[in-house]
Amino acid sequence: MAIEKPTIVILDGYTLNPGDLSWESITAVAQTNIYEHTPEDEIVTRAQGAKVVMANKTILSAKTIAALPELECICVLATGYNNVDLAAANKRGIPVCNISGYSTPAVAQHVFALLLELTNRVALHHQTVVAGKWAKSRDFSYTEQTIIELASKTMGIYGLGKIGRATAKIARAFGMEVIATSKSVPDDETDFIDRVDLHTLFAQSDVISLHANLSAKNEGIVNKALLKQMKSSAYLINTGRGGLIVEADLKHALENNQLAGAGLDVLSVEPPVNSNSLIEVKNCIITPHIAWASHAARKRLMEIAADNLKAFFNGKPQNVVNPEVL
Question: Which fold has domain 7-102+295-325?
Answer without folding.
Answer: Rossmann fold (3.40.50)
